[in-house]
Every structure is written in C-alpha cells, then in structure tokens.
Amino acid sequence: MATSTLTKHVLAGALGDILVDVRAAGRESPRPAIVVVHGFKGFKDWGMFPPLAERLARAGFATVTGNLSGSGVDDAGQLVYPERFGRDTYSAELHDLGLLVEALVQGELGVPPPTTIGLVGHSRGGGIAVLHAARDRRVQALVTWAAISSVERWSPSEVSRWRKDGVTEIVNSRTGQRLPLYTDVIDDVERNAAGPLDILGAAARVEIPWLIVHGSADESVSPLESEALRAASPLEKTRLLTIEGAGHTFGAGHPWDAREHDTPQLRRVFDMTLAWFAAHLG
After folding, report:
1. Which domains does the chain have, with CATH numbers?
2. Could you read off the pLDDT of 181-207 as tens digits, one per residue?
3. Which of 14, 78, 109, 206 has the fewest Cβ atoms within 10 Å of its own Cβ atom?
C-alpha cells in the first residue's frame, strides 16, 4: 500500500468553521473519494476515525474527515466552542456535509475532483449520511455504522422539561465537561422530522450499494434501528452486517490505543468497509 499525505482545510459551515483533514496516497490524478461523518459528541480525530481514514487512503481512496461546525471541537480535539455544540442541529450537520461534498467535487480540498464518492457515517452521522445519499446522485456507495433511524431521540417528558428550562445539559463522559444543549435541535426536529430529516423515508430512496453495520450489543443505538433501515431500503442493494458482541464503537475508544482498541470486531468493520468501497467505487 502507498504512503498517504495529510492536508488541512477550513470551510465556513452553518455554525462556524468546518475543520477538514484530507488523506491521500496520490494527489496528481483523480481517484475515488470517501467522506467520513462523525456522530454526536464525535469529531474527526476521535478514536477510530484517523486509523480508518489512513487505511482507506493507503488503499487508494482520497479520504475526507471533518469536524462539523456544531461539534464544538478544535483541531487539537478539544471541545472549546460549547455554544456551537449547544446550537447544533441535524439540519446544520446536513448542510455542512453538503458543503464538504461540494468542496470535494470542486477540487477545493487539495485533491482533484474525484471519479466517484462514497460516504461512511457513524451513529448520528450515519443518519446524516443516509439523508445526504438519498438526495445527491454524485454519491455512489454508502456505509453506515450504528446509524440512527430517526431524529426523534427524546421522550415527551424530556422535551417538556427541556423547553421549560430552555436548555439541558450533556455530560462529556471523556472529559467531564457539562455542555449546554439548547432547544434549537428539538425545534429542528419538530419542524423537519416528517420532511427533510425523515431518515427512514430517505432510506427508501437510497438507490446505491449500502452496507449497514451494527453491533449486537450496542448500548447507545438499538440494533433494531439498523433492521428498520434495512427494511426501508431497496433490499437487493443493501446488506445488513451484525457484529456479534460489539458495542456502539466496536471496541474503539479515545484517545486511540491500538493495543486496546484494535479489536477483532473493529478490524472486521474496517475490512468490510474497505471491501465495500473497493467493490462499488470505480
């Protein structure tokens, strides 16, 4: 496998800067590209994403990872923009992903416009990837890991308390930070869950090869959600891969430690993801 190089870029996103890393083993000629979408409380340098991006780049794909503007995370991996995090919405993330793909297609990320594009998204990012893939015919292959099937994640009682207080708190278990989450996201859900943010509706419109990966022991997103995505999708082009015994991140953690986090489950996810894109991106 070839050695990849890394370049860094900045795009103006919905809530601030989108920080972008591009890894590629060659930048002289067009090649297939893959955009990686992180989930809630995720960011481009979280745990498994840099090893994934590096492996995809060494295999010949230009690989794009980014901190979406509502992540609140800087290029050092620190959550230093809590207000951006607090104002983040699904619509903002979908907007930012669209900007990333467009910048890639226009040759603005240090590599030539790609021959084909694939998306891989984790958790909430998986749902965002489905929404984007359903409406952008330039995307020709999709992989989702532990993806959500609905943007409606909170009970009526939780929403009621949230609206009464105007804010709820999210604890970052990794850092102990107590982060604000304002009502922007539930406003967005109430306006758009049955329309632009209908993930199952989008799944029914995905007409490209789609690999759905989910751990059987996922503690954050029920494996039933992957079954719902599979049931909604064109079955002849979609495969559901259940990783027995795996949790939400397939054993990965942050900061990355290959001795601890390079688990058999995660290696299988990496292998299948690479094989899927190799088979379906020309």
Report:
1. 5-151+197-280 (3.40.50.1820)
2. 999 999 999 999 999 999 999 999 999
3. 78
